């Protein structure tokens, strides 16, 4: 458990230097391309590009695997479930009682699994390579989102990290009062609900105090300046173009291969 | 003082004309009938009993009490003739709890935050950040994580953060109440340096008067019933017999005076051993590093023990482990039959209802242990976990002894700081544990609550209860006597008296 969501351990030397807005742009165009069609070709192209780009982005394969292995399992399970339940077209590949896999259903399953991974990776790349403070600066200065909203979100991130600590303390404090995580299922459920309520009460009180501290430092006015300038560099243009190329390339390849399956038609 | 560095707008003049504030949903005014003039550059210590409205006055001056939805205002409170909320940045407020004031992840950004909010140009922001960090003596890189600071450093950071606004009025709400003695001096000295450079007006609220008595040139005592009880230079207000008596009645800590306590100084324990620790290593989490190693201590019935040491040394972790709440990392912790009864000798394996009859642990933050919606329910909660019938006479006696009888219907969260502390101790005593563990029981308490607590604990020890307190309040340790386990640098050393 990292001690703070505001200071996560970051990696990926190239993307670290980029402006969060260019990363978001690339992720969004790739996501739109992927969401437009359910086919295995476009998903494979995107996933292949993402994996091939990893060394350039400075993200280590093992570092990534360590963080996303639950996602891999989920993708495999999703693929299996789809293959099992999708429309049974094409030749039968395997039939054991009610369990039937056909060429068509397996292709659909693979497409779903690949798409899930291809969709998830850009977001994970951004998480791994973006400092929350830089993200807030970029959202407010470049995308001109309201600064109260952006900075409020940033400040609350720190409180989210503290929730874990607070939950543990509350558990100990309740145990000391004679109410613990033992007994029947009903008693445990009631205890869990009680502790959750206690956590909410504490979280609100904490947030209120933080809000007072922020207000006492002049937060909440109409305008403000920014101590850190959020800037674009040539790298950001490269990232945006690469995102576009990957998205357009995936769609073009799928259309040429005849697998393009636009969801709105 | 370097003339060129004085803030452009200068020190603030404060005036209150019949000012009062009632929080929405409350019947009584938190502060009322306040008539006050504070001239620019004056340094004021604001005193008063718990509930006299000291914090409300500071929040009012800082302009953070809110709008009509959040309360009702009477009269006027003005900074240089203007409403405090309309002159953002003229007043800088530092709050009591170092943990709840940090907004951002890095030291530099944290200090810059207030200047950004005041629309200071970028180049000037970073000049102000450097100057503010210099002022408070925090020689840290700008990208130093704010989580990796001690309590005293966090309070100095909070001070630097408001200094970046270049306020003409510095408001400090019990800035050192949660700090160890070193941290107290760190913060006090930083404030003095800042005032010498900027010449700003100061209003500080603090129970422990001795810390600020030499720094301020005026002491104002608020009357709990509204208005002002005493006003004058510290040499007069804090020395004159008449005002001293009234300050003592109000629970203010006056230099050279300790509130009278009842009971007798406990002698060192000769009762049967309750709990023994040998080569005990304690850790907050299962996998994290051990906070303290190789602890040895024996706790006997009818003795008072202390745990001391700097902030963050692992005192609380040690206390939670001795209290059976955390699993020991290594070594042995044995509960003897006099404590364990039929429950086995390893406290951390006890189920909650078993634990609550044997060891009572009072947490630093009373609110963490409140479980119900009324004081009465809080008091009967523990006994109900043990048996279906509750000894109501005993509960009534406990409530009487801790002056909670008139509050039985009240919601625990709405009590004052002193009342919350008394209730959190009472809830633990309701199940008559043989060992009572308290984590910083006197943090932020006024002298009256302090004296009550000491008297009660002395009586408990006299009745054969063992009392273990984590504290850096030397007066408190003196008043309870007993040996002290001093923890620092990951090791513990038992100091006998």
UniProtKB/TrEMBL annotation, chain A:
One Pfam family matching this protein: CbiQ
Keyword Transmembrane helix: yes
Chief localization: membrane
Keyword Glycosyltransferase: no
Membrane topology (UniProt): Multi-pass membrane protein
Localization per record: Membrane
Membrane-crossing residue ranges in chain numbering: 24-47, 68-86, 106-128, 237-263
Keyword terms, alphabetized: Cell membrane, Membrane, Transmembrane, Transmembrane helix
Protein name: Energy-coupling factor transporter transmembrane protein EcfT
TrEMBL record, chain B:
Gene3D superfamilies the record matches: P-loop containing nucleotide triphosphate hydrolases (3.40.50.300)
GO molecular function: ATP binding; ATP hydrolysis activity; ATPase-coupled transmembrane transporter activity
Name of the protein described by the UniProt record: ATP-binding cassette domain-containing protein
CDD domains registered for this protein in UniProt: ABC_cobalt_CbiO_domain1
Family, similarity comment: Belongs to the ABC transporter superfamily.
Entry GO terms, CC: ATP-binding cassette (ABC) transporter complex
Superkingdom of origin organism: Bacteria
Record keywords: ATP-binding, Nucleotide-binding, Transport
SMART domains: AAA (SM00382)
PROSITE patterns noted in UniProt: ABC_TRANSPORTER_1 (PS00211), ABC_TRANSPORTER_2 (PS50893)
Domain ABC transporter: 12-249, 277-497
Organism the protein comes from: Arthrobacter echini
């Amino acid at each position: 458990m990292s001690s703070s969501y505001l200071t996560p351990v970051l990696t990926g030397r190239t993307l670290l230097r980029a402006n969060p807005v260019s990363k978001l742009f690339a992720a969004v165009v790739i996501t739109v391309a992927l969401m437009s069609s359910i086919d295995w070709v476009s998903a494979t192209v995107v996933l292949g590009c993402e994996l091939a780009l990893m060394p350039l982005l400075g993200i280590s394969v093992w570092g990534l695997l360590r963080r996303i292995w639950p996602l891999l399992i989920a993708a495999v399970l999703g693929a299996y479930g789809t293959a099992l339940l999708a429309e049974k077209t094409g030749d039968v590949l395997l039939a054991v009682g009610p369990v039937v896999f056909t060429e068509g259903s397996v292709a659909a399953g693979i497409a779903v699994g690949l798409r899930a991974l291809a969709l998830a990776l850009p977001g994970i790349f951004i998480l791994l390579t973006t400092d929350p403070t830089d993200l807030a600066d970029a959202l407010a200065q470049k995308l001109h989102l309201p600064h109260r909203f952006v900075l409020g979100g940033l400040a609350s991130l720190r409180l989210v990290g503290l929730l874990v600590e607070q939950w543990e303390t509350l558990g100990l404090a309740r145990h000391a009062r004679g109410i613990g995580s033992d007994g029947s299922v009903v008693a445990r459920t009631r205890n869990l609900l009680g502790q959750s309520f206690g956590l909410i009460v504490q979280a609100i009180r904490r947030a209120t105090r933080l809000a007072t501290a922020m207000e006492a430092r002049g937060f909440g006015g109409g305008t403000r300046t920014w101590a850190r300038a959020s800037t674009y560099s040539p790298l950001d243009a490269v990232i945006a173009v690469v995102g576009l190329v990957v998205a357009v390339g995936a769609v073009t390849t799928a259309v040429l291969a005849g697998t393009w399956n636009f969801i709105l038609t | 003082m370097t003339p060129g560095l004085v803030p452009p707008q200068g020190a603030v003049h404060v005036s209150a004309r019949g000012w009062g504030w009632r929080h929405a949903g409350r019947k009584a005014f938190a502060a009322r009938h306040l008539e006050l003039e504070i001239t620019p550059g004056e340094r004021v210590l604001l005193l008063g009993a718990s509930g006299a409205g000291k914090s409300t006055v500071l929040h009012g001056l800082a302009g953070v009490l809110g709008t009509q939805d959040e309360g009702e205002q009477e009269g006027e409170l003005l900074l240089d003739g203007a409403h405090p909320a309309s002159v953002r940045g003229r007043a800088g407020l530092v709050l009591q709890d170092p943990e709840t004031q940090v907004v951002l992840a890095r030291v530099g950004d944290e200090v810059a935050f207030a200047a950004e909010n005041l629309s200071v140009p970028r180049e000037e922001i970073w000049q102000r950040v450097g100057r503010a960090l210099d002022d408070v003596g925090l020689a840290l890189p700008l990208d130093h994580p704010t989580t990796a600071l001690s309590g005293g450093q966090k309070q100095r950071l909070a001070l630097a953060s408001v200094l970046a606004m270049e306020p003409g009025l510095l408001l400090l709400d019990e800035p050192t109440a949660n700090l160890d003695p070193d941290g107290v001096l760190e913060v006090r000295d930083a404030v003095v340096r800042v005032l010498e450079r900027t010449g700003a007006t100061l209003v500080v609220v603090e129970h422990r008067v001795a810390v600020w008595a030499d720094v301020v040139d005026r002491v104002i005592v608020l009357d709990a019933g509204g208005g002002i009880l005493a006003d004058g230079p510290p040499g007069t207000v804090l020395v004159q017999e008449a005002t001293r008596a009234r300050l003592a009645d109000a629970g203010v800590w006056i230099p050279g005076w300790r509130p009278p306590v009842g009971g007798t100084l406990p002698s060192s324990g000769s009762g049967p051993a309750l709990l023994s620790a040998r080569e005990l290593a304690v850790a907050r989490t299962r996998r994290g590093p051990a906070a303290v190693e190789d602890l040895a201590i024996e706790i006997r019935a009818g003795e008072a023990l202390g745990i001391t040491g700097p902030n963050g040394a692992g005192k609380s972790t040690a206390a939670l482990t001795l209290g059976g709440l955390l699993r020991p990392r290594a070594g042995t912790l044995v509960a003897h039959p006099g404590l364990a009864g039929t429950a086995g000798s390893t406290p951390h394996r006890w189920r909650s209802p078993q634990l609550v009859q044997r060891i009572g642990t009072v947490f630093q933050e009373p609110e963490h242990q409140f479980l119900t919606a009324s004081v009465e329910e809080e008091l009967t909660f523990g006994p109900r976990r043990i048996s279906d019938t509750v000894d109501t006479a005993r509960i009534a006696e406990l409530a009487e002894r801790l002056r909670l009888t008139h509050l039985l219907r009240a919601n625990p969260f709405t009590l004052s700081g002193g009342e919350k502390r008394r209730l959190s101790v009472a809830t633990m005593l309701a199940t008559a544990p043989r060992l009572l563990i308290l984590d910083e029981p006197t943090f932020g308490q006024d002298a009256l609550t302090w004296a009550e607590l000491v008297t009660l604990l002395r009586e408990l020890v006299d009745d054969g209860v063992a009392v273990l307190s984590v504290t850096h309040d030397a007066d408190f340790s003196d008043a309870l006597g007993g040996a002290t386990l001093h923890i620092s640098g990951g090791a513990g050393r038992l100091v006998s008296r």
